[in-house]
Every structure is written in C-alpha cells, then in structure tokens.
Structure prediction request, 478 residues.
Amino acid sequence: MKDILLVLPEIVLLTLAGLILIADLFVARNQKWFTYACGVGALLWTAVYVFIPFTPIASVARETAFSGLFVADGVSTVLKLAMLLSAAVALAYSWTYLKKHNLDNGEFVALVLFGTLGMMVIASAASMLTAYLGLELLSLSMYALVALKRDDKIATEAAMKYFVLGALASGLLLFGMSIVYGATGTISLSGISAALAKANTTAVALGLIFIAAGVAFKLGVVPFHMWVPDVYSGAPTAVTLILATAAKLAAFALAYRLFGTGLTPAYEDWSIILAVIATLSIVLGNLIAVAQTNIKRMLAYSAIANMGFLLLGFVGGGKDGYAAALFYAVAYAITGLVSFGILVLLSGRGVEIENIDDLKGLNARSPWYAFLMLLAMFSLAGIPPTIGFWAKLSVIETIVGAGYTWIAVIAVLASLVGAFYYLRVIRVMYFAESDDGAIALPSRGETVLISANALAILLLGAFPSLLFSLCAKALQAS
Prediction:
C-alpha cells in the first residue's frame, strides 16, 4: 500500500489521460474546448496529489518504492509541481492557436499528459531503468507532438530530425548506462554511488562520456544542439512552448538523478566534461543568436546558452550547486512560458509571429503585451530586478566558490553579448514602426493568466529567496 501511495500522482495522471482520450471520441468537433479544459484540470488535479502529502518540503523524508525503482523526496516534489503547472499553463495558452491551425484535437491533449507523466517518472527515478523508461515516454510524446501538423513539410522535417537524433542520443545514453552497470553490478542509483569506489575507473569514465552525451542532447547543449533551432522553428509554436519549458525541467531532472545522485563519487570526472559543454554552449549559443532574424530560432539559441548556465550549477557541485541549478531551471521555465506564451497567444489571433520584425510597433498596438515581452527579455538577459538576474547570479556564485573563476568570467562576458539580441527585440517593439494596423488581442482570461505569469518574474525577482529557499530545502530533503 505504501508503494501505491507514493506513486499515486502518476496513477492519477495516467488514469485521467486514458479517460480523456476515450471521452474525446464522443466530443463533437466544435466542442473540443471541453477536452482541453479536462486536460488542464487533470494536470492541476494531479498537482494537488503531489502537493498535499509533502507539505512542508522541509519535513519530507526520502522514501523509495518498488524495490528502489522509485523515489519520493523534496526535489521530485518541486520538479513535479513545476512540470505540472508549466504543462497546464502551456495547454491553456495553446487553445486558440491550435484551433486556428486545425490542431484542436484530443490527441494533442493526451500526448501532453503522457509526456508530462514521463517527466514525473524521470523526476522520481531511483534507478537507471526508471530514468530511461520515463525519458522514452517523454521523448515519444514529444516526437508525435512535433509531427502533429502532418500537412506541413517544415514540421514533418523537424519531427524527423528530432526523432533520428533523439533515437541516437537515447542509444548513447543506454550504452553508457550499460557500461556503468557492468562496472558496478547494479542499476540502482544509490547502489551505483556506493559501488563506484570499488569499480573499474576506466570503464566508469567511458560510461560517463556516453551518459554525458545523452543528457547533453536532452538539454540541447553544444555539441548536441543541432536539433534545437530546427525543431523550435519547425514545430507549431504551441509545441515549442512545451519543449522550451516543462521539457527542460525534465532534462534537469534526468541530469540531477544521474549526476547528482548516482554518479556523485565520480564528480571529478564528469564535472570536467560538463564544464566544457556548458562553456561552449554559453559562448556559441549567445554568439549565433545575434545573427538570427527568426524569433523562435533566436530563442532556441538562447535556450542553448541558458541550459549551459544550468549545467554550471552541476559543475559547482554539492547541495548548493544543485540548488542553484534547480532554481535556474524553474526560473527559466517561468520566463519561457511568458516569451513563448506571448508568441502563441498573438499568433492565434492574427499574423503568425515568426520573425523578430513581426513584433514591430507592438507597443503602439498593444502596450501591455509589449511590456510583458520586455519583462521576459530582461529575465532571459539576466537584467535586474527580474528572476533571471538572480538565477544567473546564484549559478555564477556557485562556480566561483568551486574555483572555476575563469568560467564565470566567460559566462558573464557571453551574457553581455546575449543582452544585445534581447534588447534588439525590445527596440523593435518600442521604436520600430509597423505597417500593420491594430491586432486582435487575446481574451481577458488569457491576458490575466499571462499577466500573472509575467508578474511572477518581477515578484520572484524582488523576493528571490522565496524560490531559492524552496529549492535549497528540496535538496536538503533529498
């Protein structure tokens, strides 16, 4: 019974996803809003099941289920809540966009729910087997979502690239896991941690290289970043919104469970690999983003740079480093929901927002939405008083404390370069004139939701300790 109670949120979400998929068969084509409302409700209801048993997080004891395959702790609680809320908000933003593009079907909702279930499994993985199963459930759902617009050649091409490269990355990850299993004799992450002291160091180091490659692909960092700009720009913007927010939290969860739990004793080996990957991602991501005119490709390269920053938390190591990385992941998800959310909402009612120039004169056409986008750009650039500033600062403090001052200097200089293309978006919105007239604005409910989302960037920027202390407590309870 204890095991069932620990996995109750996953059982609830799986059950509701199955019921929604069946019920959608009986919903008329012009009533699909009901399916979407049920999808958002399922995510929020599951979040209740995650939240209630683990309050306050500081008192959560680390518990395992199913012979050590599943773990419930502070980190899994914070991640699951962030994943569920991110997916629910993304689904709420997407309705009008999907309806306009004839994608308002039950399959979209079901795939989002199953993908979120995969994210939750990764967050609670206590074994390499569980982590891999959750990853594949998430990946298969994302492949299908990217390819959902079957009559669009660009979306189909993006889905094929994502699938082929994703399959390759999964193979690399699985190969690395098999090597570590051969060296340690166990797939349990806690067992691997205990066995590493006696394991064959050469075999473990080889396994680490393949595992790092697999995780790097899921995070979308250099040199495994090739799919990110193509998939971000080719997929429907509503799908890109999910890939850029909730899916990034799942990638962090995978990295934390593997590096922060199972492979911690091998920190000296994998920290060097991640340091190189993170530094290259920050530099190349920011430099290449400067040359982009497509806003989704620009934000894709921005994501590469930001995931590099996230990895720096792992390079810093220890509870403080992982707490900084968790803080960064949640802050980035909040900001991503605003930046891509605005693109989804505006594209659902007017001209498709594909290029930066499509935002010309947005301040004259909708001052409030221009201000919300400004907040998102400031946060991505790491400009105070937004949450993005504190997220970057916490990571930089961690790596300086770990003795990687040279990486901190490079990261700060690269961020200054990154500020250029974020400020270019603001210049286009406020100082460039548009040839178009007024735009059809989102509904009042959508405006209230994204306004609350954007104002969270300011609120958490003014009181960053609210979120950071939560992340720190989650790590202490793990």
About this structure: The first strand starts at residue 63 and ends at 65. The mean pLDDT is 87. Strands lie at 63-65, 70-72.
